[in-house]
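Hi Q.,

Before the meeting this afternoon, I wanted you to have the adenosine-5'-triphosphate prediction in hand. No need to reply - just skim if you have a minute. The sequence and ligand are here:
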Amino acid sequence: MYKLSGVTKNYQKGRGSVAALRGVDLVVEDGEWLAIQGPTGHGKSTLLQILGGLDRPSAGIVDFDGRDLAQLRETEVTRVRAASIGFVFQTFNLVPTLSAQENVEAALVPLRVPAPSRRLRAAAALESLGLGDRLRHVPGELSGGQQQRVAIARALVKEPKVLLADEPTGNLDEDTRDEIIGLLEQLWRERGLTMVLVTHDSSVARRAQRIGVMKNGRLTFKKPARPVNVGPVAAESVVAAESVVAADTEAEG
Ligand SMILES: Nc1ncnc2c1ncn2[C@@H]1O[C@H](COP(=O)(O)OP(=O)(O)OP(=O)(O)O)[C@@H](O)[C@H]1O
Ligand SMILES: [Mg+2]
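Predicted structure with the ligand bound:
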């Protein structure tokens, strides 16, 4: 799905510049669930933005299904993003004046889905996430967990291949966190999604198939601490991936 090589990102800050990514190499397989951990300010969100075509690297290749997002024209990147990539954020990022239904429908506008079909699909997406009786509520009338469900419906209503989540449970209490992660895991499994999830929470990261750690703009991988989550990816390829990770870890000493 993704093949990144030598990805760097420098932000101009006054006269100086901040190196947010310093040469990231990363392959994300179709249907894989990758978690990314690491200290604050070390490049996790920057990497996710680049994976989602929300930002461009300063150098390097961001191959997404055979096309380099770093080189595509802006209109092309927008099209890829609208059709293929769903986002979920820590602060939900819903439009406060729109109802749950309208927030979800908004994701289908750039895809030129006709209005009647947008309404049906948005309602179905919300119903499938247990919000069938909340379609007309605005975000301020919903709990945090419900707002995150609306955001997940908005991300998935267009049936993207990829779901990128930046600390999706960061603003939720423990029970709601577990509920949202359970939901994401179910959606990942049922839909064969490719999922990259940034989290500070080790109990969340452990549920992924693989854990990457961003530190000082560099990405390394942890050896899975327990049997990896075998989802849509065939069991043998997960075992193969695991031994590659083990070999990498040994090579790095
Ligand atoms: N738009 C920007 N302009 C300038 N510097 C930026 C910008 N965005 C991020 N940075 C800097 O890049 C570095 C990496 O930021 P990033 O947001 O990727 O960190 P993070 O790992 O997601 O942190 P957190 O865990 O706090 O969310 C930080 O030093 C940050 O200050
Ligand atoms: Mg961040």
